[in-house]
Amino acid sequence: MIPLHQRIRDEIEGLIRSGAWAPGHRAPSETELMAQYGCSRMTVNKAMSALAEAGLIVRRRRAGSFVARPRVHSTVLDIPDIQAEITARGETYGFVLLAAERRPADPDDGDEVELAGEGDLVALRGLHVAGGRPFALEDRLISLAAVPEAAAADFAAEPPGAWLLHHVPWTEAESRISAIGAEPAVAELLALDVGAALLAVERRTWRAGEPVTRVRQLFPGEAYDLIARFGPAR
Amino acid sequence: MIPLHQRIRDEIEGLIRSGAWAPGHRAPSETELMAQYGCSRMTVNKAMSALAEAGLIVRRRRAGSFVARPRVHSTVLDIPDIQAEITARGETYGFVLLAAERRPADPDDGDEVELAGEGDLVALRGLHVAGGRPFALEDRLISLAAVPEAAAADFAAEPPGAWLLHHVPWTEAESRISAIGAEPAVAELLALDVGAALLAVERRTWRAGEPVTRVRQLFPGEAYDLIARFGPAR
DNA sequence: CTCGCGAATATGTCTATACATATTGAACCG
DNA sequence: CGGTTCAATATGTATAGACATATTCGCGAG
């Protein structure tokens, strides 16, 4: 049984997404919807407030509720877990740990110093492999001040991304996406020509304001797409 | 005056984001919060339902409300309007229309055929310029079946992105982000070496299920970053 | 000791009502 | 004709109560 407020919400959302109600269109008032659905105003209000929160309508007192004009920016981007992504494609996933060391932050690198805080860093380099072929190169720094358990973790057994996900819940994250050419060392590891275009995803995460980790993942440009959608899919 | 349900919501969100309530932590029941804030259950419920909808807590009947473990995927990505982005940086913006033609869809290109529908296409190529230097190359197709007015528009005066935004509200969009090497023609237009890494953003938009436009924007890799954030910023 | 059943609990939904608040449009007055 | 006031309107917030539903816990029977 679908709750009534959800049904109202879904129906109106359908009218908007189908284009039947164009941006700017004025929706019926709560009183009208209340009569239309034979329910109380609170129920209608719950549906309409949810649509407003979702950004589908704009509500103005005395004036009414209007279909919002969608904004170009801020779509939802799926940055999937690499392992999950690969297995979802039906390919076998592997992770090769190329290097792992514990070291203090480079004092010339403000970024590292901030990440390390009072402690050392764990620096990792690893290769994500899909079906026997290199899929992504990952360079990661983990703050031991934030995650002391990382000193003893075996990242060859469990890739650092998955390990962190299980051990350290984060509260904030920032991802930065750019394109760079492959340097010789990187090109060799990814089995590409030097200078080949790579999609670079750099992500930093924090827990309660304290930096936890910074990771830079390099994907061969033609092998990987990031997709962001705005639309009927829920 | 901040509404009470919002205050409750904000306070609990603060406890979660600060890490005071770790993932898995059980929040007080609605009855307890109701006593704590001296309000009715509906008010507490509104706050907690909103937090649940936002994915910050998970609610289970009889069991209670628990702080959710954040998921890696689905962050919010800002895909800004290029013109707005450049002027925000304090640089002068310019758009150079390199080519514009009206033509039927290429029957060998299923993508174009779908976009065109029963009508022709407008095919445009233009260069976004920031402070006198090339910033992005844009190739765009507009469906005249969906937007007949595009046949008469002057895209040299108003860049097609802005023109479309003003004339055709869309209801769905999909963006695809990848990295490619610059081909000779592209490299020359962007004043780069052949093979230089480019960030490619391809976006398609629909209105009420009908394809409206498809645009491919190529940015010099080192000149532009896309940033996605998840965190306390609201 | 285990299984099944019923009671307790926490959330989920909904109603009817009340008052607050922003905004608009129209009536009124200078 | 222009500005001010005021009432109508639509949303915003909140209450108290009611019943529904899923899930867990504990008790008692086998």
UniProtKB/TrEMBL annotation, chains A, B:
Keywords: DNA-binding, Transcription, Transcription regulation
Biological processes annotated in GO: L-histidine metabolic process; negative regulation of DNA-templated transcription
Domain HTH gntR-type positions: 2-70
Keyword Transcription regulation listed: yes
Gene3D superfamilies assigned: Chorismate lyase-like, Winged helix-like DNA-binding domain superfamily/Winged helix DNA-binding domain
GO molecular function ontology, one term from the record: DNA-binding transcription factor activity
Short name of any one Pfam family annotated for the protein: GntR
Alphabetical list of NCBIfam families matching this protein: his_ut_repres
The protein's name in its UniProt record: Histidine utilization repressor
Organism annotation: Caulobacter endophyticus
